[in-house]
Amino acid sequence: MMEHFILISAVVLILLIMVSLIRVIGGPTVGDRILGGNVVGTKTTVLLLLIGILYEDLGMFVDIAIAYALLNFIATLGATKFFLRRGDVGEMVEEAITRHEDSVAETKTPRGGST
């Protein structure tokens, strides 16, 4: 019974990885692509642990999952640093701050037109 639960969890996790890959491939901004790649790496780490439970050798798969998570983290940092130097992510951060400031200013303005 436990094997069926783990297999179903693994299949659902694979489907969620596919959904995240859509964001990686067609993300509107570079930041969305980087974040999507990080999400895929995190879900893959959990999938490795589920495989370790299925094979009843969790110790070996924990080591592999930790190494994979570390590589995923380093790759995310490297991609972010590369795109920050290029200027795309810096512009994206400035745009997000501007949108946030605009939304805060919009909520502070009185509605209804009367003073």
Q: Could you explain the architecture of this structure?
A:
The protein has 115 residues and is mostly helical. The chain has one domain. Helix content is 87%, strand content 0%. The termini are far apart. The model has no long low-confidence stretch (mean pLDDT 86).
The largest sheet is: none
Order of helices and strands: HHHH
Subunit organisation of the chains: single chain
Radius of gyration: 20 Å
Q: Helical amount among residues, as a percent range?
A: over 70%
Q: What is the overall silhouette?
A: elongated
Number of domains: 1
Point out poorly predicted stretches: none
Q: In DSSP terms, counting alpha (H) and pi (I) runs of 4 or more, how many helices?
A: 4
Strand residues, percent: under 5%
Distance between the termini: 66 Å
Care to give the gist of this entry?
The protein is built from 4 helices and no strands. The chain is an all-alpha fold and 115 residues long.
Q: Which helices and strands, and how do they pair?
A:
Blueprint: H1 2-26, H2 30-54, H3 58-86, H4 88-108
Helix pairs in contact: 1-2, 2-3
